[in-house]
Amino acid sequence: MREIVICGEALVDVVAARAPVNAGRLAALQPALGGGPFNVAVTLGRLGSAVSLCTAVSTDTYGDAIVAALQASGVGTGHLQRRGEPTSLALATIGTDGAAHYSFYVEGTADRLVQDPGAFPQTVSAVCFGTLSLVLEPGASVYESLLRRCHDEGRLVVIDPNIRPAVIADHDAYRRRFASWMDAVDIVKLSDEDADWLSSGPSGTGPADWLAAGVTAVITTAGPAGITVTTAAAAVTSPAPKVQVSDTIGAGDSVVGGVLRHLENLGALSPRAVAELSAEQWLAIAEYAGQVAAITVSRPGADPPWAGELRSDYVDNQQHPYPDVRSTRLSPE
Fold it and tell me: ω into residue 138 within 30 of 0, thus cis?
């Protein structure tokens, strides 16, 4: 059986309510489990994939909740490392458009102290990396080494940088480091805002550079413009489904999960198979990922769908998994 391993942090999102508050009083806070890699793993588990999360998780109460949530969504926990340091926190405030804005509390936390997990079983066909784990040391160097090792072993390597400028000390140094990974990556998924940030500055690079370095496909989400897949041969765009947005927390992560699940369904969890996909197949992958993300943004928090929530007759952007949800066009960012 083919397996997928997601590498990176699991943390707690502390979400501030959007309701107005009186002067001198703060909005109510609601904790929720999150972290980009955690959300991707949960998405895949709920969609029916054999998936595990590779990270360090605290032994505190939040860490116990993270483990329980993974298991409840069908995510394997055999690659988790339990540590005594606290769980990372992300303070999320939600704008009037449903978009989330973050600040982070990550000093001395468990996930950034992850150790090399050693060799993965031969059944692991695809490995995905992303978000804070690619930035915060010493864990970032551990994941970078693991990324290159997985590439050398012939596994499919996927990366979603999910740029958080507030935690990147040297922006240009990170842009150079990101570009240096591209010869070991098969698929890059990112938002249009991520792409703009990575292409700016003296060391900026963009999709054309990454494809030239060896990346097979760049998948870009762009709000109402939908999801675009760019390869060396073609570019295709799937229109955004119509959906009433609750918030966008976990939207991009669910796109990654949807892409990997559809690749699995196609039997394409290998670098060679991905390189042989047609433009029509990439379009179908983008449409499926958009359907998964549409459900995620239609309800609060990072709450991706279960396989049974996806309509098998979903054909185009006029049919949404929830027929009564139709008011606003939005694609995950």
Answer: yes
Closest CA to 191 of 158, 218, 157: 218
Query: CA dist 231 to 20, 32, 124, 188, Å?
Result: 45, 36, 25, 11
* Chain segment 101-137, per-residue pLDDT in tens: 778 999 999 999 999 999 999 999 999 999 999 999 9
Closest of 18, 23, 72, 63 to residue 45, by C-alpha: 72
d(CA 300, CA 104): 20
Name the 3-class secondary structure at 129: strand
Cβ burial 90-127 (10 Å sphere, 16+ → b, else e): bebebeeebbbebebebeebbbbbbeebeebeeebbbb
Helices 171-181 and 139-152: crossing angle, nearest 10°?
A: 20
Q: Cβ(257)–Cβ(265) under 8 Å?
A: no
